[in-house]
Amino acid sequence: MADMDEFRDMFFVECDELLEVLANGLRQMEQPGFDKETVHAVFRAVHSVKGGAAAFGLTTLVTFAHRFETVLDLVRSDKIEVTPLIMGLLHRCSDCLTDLVGTARSGQDPDEVKVDGLMTELDGLIDSDGEEDTAFEFTPITLDFGAPLSFDAPLGLDMPTAEPARAGLLVQMAPGFQLYRSGNDPMALLASLRKLGDCDVVMNDESVAPLEDWSPEQPSLAWEIGMPEGIDEAAIMSVFEFVEDCCMLSIRPAPAPEITPAENEPEPEVAAQHDPAPAEAVQTPPPPTTPDEASTAPAAGPRAAAQSDAGQAAPTIRVALDRVDRLMNMIGELVIKEAMLSQVIQTAGMHEQPDVIAGLDAIRQLASDIQESVMAIRAQPLKLVFQRMHRILREAADATGKPVRLITIGEQTEVDKTMIERLVEPLTHMIRNSVDHGLEDTVTRQRRGKPQEGTITLSAAHRSGRVQIEVSDDGGGINRAKVRQIAEDRGLVAPGANLSPAEIDQLLFLPGFSSKDEVSALSGRGVGLDVVRREIMGLGGRVMIQSTEGEGTTFSIALPLTLAVVEGMLIQLGDQTMVLPITAVQETLRPESSMLHGVGHGSQLLSNRGELIPIIDLCASFGVTQPEGGPDSSVLIVVETDSRKRAAFRVDAIFDQRQVVIKSLEQNYGRVPGVSAATILGDGKIALIIDPEEILLSMSNDQGRRMAAMASNG
Amino acid sequence: MLQSISHNSVGKSDVVAFKLADQDFCIDIGLVREIRGWTPTTMLPHAPDYVKGVINLRGSVVTVVDLSARLGFGAATPSHRHVVIIAMHAGRIVGLLADLVSDILPINEDHIQAVPDIASNPAREFIVGMITLEDGRILRKIDLAQLLPAAHGVEA
């Protein structure tokens, strides 16, 4: 059933939130003097995952979550002391739970070995505690809404419930035929109730007539739903808002629960004598075994977990990204129209009338405010990426055997949503790199008088219209002599070349550079920082290194605030206006003829401060008709791209530097070599955005490429 | 417009008729989004010669195809009197540069004739049928799919 998929998706979205609560909580528990409420929150998160998983029959997930929950409960009741060892285990369990949710989502098989290993460890804790909690065998409730109802088997009565009815509200509903006729579905109602919290659903089919008397038009099923404590009657009523008049409904407090964590007390009976529904008295089935302490926990629906967060987070809505994009497009239009209008006003000679000017200014101001607000909608805190780095660090630390802690600063810094997703991979790589290559081993650290535990700091901040992310370690710093040696050995630089320390650091970003002597489990497979650099460049950013020998290394990434806008230099090529992204630009100059050197036919080099840079005529590469002026009147823009390739672009003029909104060319046309996208200028015309990287790569022949390589290395 | 919709029974359809080098062409009205006056385009490097460039259509980047060049009449020198027919094809929006739009006509699909065998005129492969009008004019029906191969742009 299609609806079932929808519920599944909802469950996994909820899981993501719960897992985040879990990971956050565990980290808080590592702080001395943590709040007891944190443990409760962690417990509730695991419990809610378990509850949801049970509804979807995800047995492995349920079994694992149950053990995990049991141990957390022991921690909560102070039966297990929180030691670093225990915390380590809890973290690994949290990671494992995340994996299990992931495999359940993608329908893969979970890593049984890992799960079993952790379960054994958890069982060890449970046993050593001397409680017989393990006796509890968790039986998942499978709410198979999609299965055809069988009249022989009273489904509801057979359904085992893991949790007894709690002191909440008892909802009884018996849909009338109008409900079905108007296209409503009891299943959807039940699902909405489940969203309010964990509820026990019992179906009553007692009034189903024997087959000979049975009328297909006359509905005869009724349901009884035990809602957990703390759910408002109004909330329940709102679920039934549209079906009130065609469904027999009663909501009343459930009989007081008499739950004792210990022995075989009789289960509370849920009687339904004066039920307006055709249903007769129904007993809630007794749970299969004694409830363990877990089930006596306060209502632990997803709602509960969400509420515990509500203290810090403002209410949010989920909006489809394309709606925001559409809004963004319209604002782009607005800005363009405004520019056109102001041009018209100028031509009409009205630009000196103060009210016209004031009106235009107000519109311009509003348009830019709206643009910023929409960008703010797309912005998300870097927290989403940073949190994932805790796990990466833990795994890297385990793999290398180096004790490391991660400090994150400025998680609330916001960047564009698409950027968040694309930052995960480069940051993962950088964290691993810092642990593996940056930090010294424990012995060396001790000798240098540093604390045994290494520290990696991940920080983010807004800095003059860009986002700066830094990954710094307190390790040994870059061993420049060694880096240089390796680069020479691999033919990446000419032996004996005169390199500044900064230039040596840059060698780390060259493709094929891997400085670790031996290949470790983590890195050193030849996929190195060049990948990081390419990814960051792809986001319109830059990576820089700062390193002090013996004190540590800092990698800084500078990113634009959004992918929707790029800071560009407006250039003139023949009769065309194009945009060159400012990130690539190193300097602009009007060369004297003594700086230009011809090489063979048609090629030219620029000699700038002793460096030889190949000149690329952009008019020629784009096939734009050359103006009469000739090359002497032109301007050169020195650009540097990935892997330190440099070139000087010859353009006819530079007018302006401004932010432009990126428009896709591929949507209605296709890829154009040397062009990354297009934008719309103030006069409504389209300008192409140049991709310097691609132009350099497509430099016509090998000689050009060699020249560029030579020039960039020399 | 309302009237022409009523023509839209089985076998009938409306076409937008336009002129190119004094010949009459048409395309199915369902494909046409709007008709605009010519505005200067921004050139696309490495594009086929019949791609005039791109224009800004309310925030989207739209390619303009010079039909005259595409059909072998030679590149057009567009003036403000030229028109751009904005059409939607296979999820892409494209502008077709034509001399002028003459009419919106109901045609009976039974009256569409196959193209007679003529010499290897480039126009031949883009024309799917001919319609003789009552006033003796001949409409050449254009197949957008042939005109705009899916690979265009990507190959460039």
List the helices and strands and how they pair.
The complex is a heterodimer of chains A (714) and B (156).
Chain A lengths: L1 H28 L6 H20 L3 H18 L7 H23 L5 H17 L26 H4 L10 E7 L1 H5 L4 H11 L3 E5 L17 E5 L6 H7 L7 E7 L48 H9 L10 H27 L6 H25 E3 L1 H18 L3 E6 L4 E3 H22 L3 H6 L6 E10 L2 E8 L6 H10 L11 H6 L22 H10 L3 E7 L3 E9 L4 E9 L2 E6 L3 E5 L6 E4 L3 E6 L2 E7 H5 L12 E6 L5 E6 L1 E9 L13 E6 L5 E5 L1 H6 L4 H12 L1
Parallel strand pairs in A: 6-8, 13-22, 17-19
Antiparallel strand pairs in A: 1-3, 1-4, 2-3, 5-7, 8-9, 9-11, 10-11, 12-13, 12-20, 14-18, 15-16, 16-17, 18-19, 21-22
Helix pairs in contact in A: 1-2, 1-4, 1-10, 2-3, 2-10, 3-4, 3-5, 4-5, 11-12, 13-14, 14-18
Chain B lengths: L1 H5 L5 E9 L2 E6 L3 E6 L13 E7 L2 E7 H4 L12 E7 L2 E7 L1 E9 L3 E2 L13 E6 L5 E5 L1 H4 L9
Parallel strand pairs in B: 2-11, 5-7
Antiparallel strand pairs in B: 1-2, 1-8, 3-6, 4-5, 6-7, 9-10, 10-11
Overview of the molecule:
The complex is a heterodimer of chains A (714) and B (156). With 714 residues, chain A is α+β, with helices and mostly antiparallel strands. Chain A has 5 domains: 2-135, Four Helix Bundle (Hemerythrin (Met), subunit A) (Up-down Bundle), CATH 1.20.120; 155-287; 321-380; 382-560, Heat Shock Protein 90 (2-Layer Sandwich); 565-713, CheA-289, Domain 4 (OB fold (Dihydrolipoamide Acetyltransferase, E2P)), CATH 2.40.50.180. Helix content of chain A is 40%, strand content 19%. The longest helix of chain A has 28 residues, at 2-29. A 6-stranded mixed sheet of chain A has the order 14-18-19-17-16-15. Chain A is built from 21 helices and 22 strands. Residues 130-138, 146-166, 257-311, 521-526 and 700-714 of chain A have low confidence and may be disordered. Chain B is mainly β and 156 residues long. Chain B has one domain (7-147): CheA-289, Domain 4 (OB fold (Dihydrolipoamide Acetyltransferase, E2P), Beta Barrel), CATH 2.40.50. Chain B has 3 helices and 11 strands, in the order αβββββαββββββα. Chain B has helices at residues 2-6, 67-70, 144-147; strands spanning 12-20, 23-28, 32-37, 51-57, 60-66, 83-89, 92-98, 100-108, 112-113, 127-132, 138-142. Chain B has a 6-stranded mixed sheet with strand order 8-1-2-11-10-9. A 5-stranded mixed sheet of chain B has the order 3-6-7-5-4. In chain B, a hairpin with a 2-residue loop joins strand 1 (12-20) and strand 2. Chain B is globular, with a radius of gyration of 16 Å. In chain B, 33% of the residues are buried. The chains are: A alpha+beta (714), B mainly beta (156). Chain A binds chain B through residues 329-330, 332-333, 336, 576, 621-624, 663-665, 667-675, 678, 680, 684-688, and chain B through 40-47, 54-56, 58-63, 92-94, 151-154, 156. Chain B: InterPro entries: CheW, CheW-like_dom_sf, CheW-lke_dom.
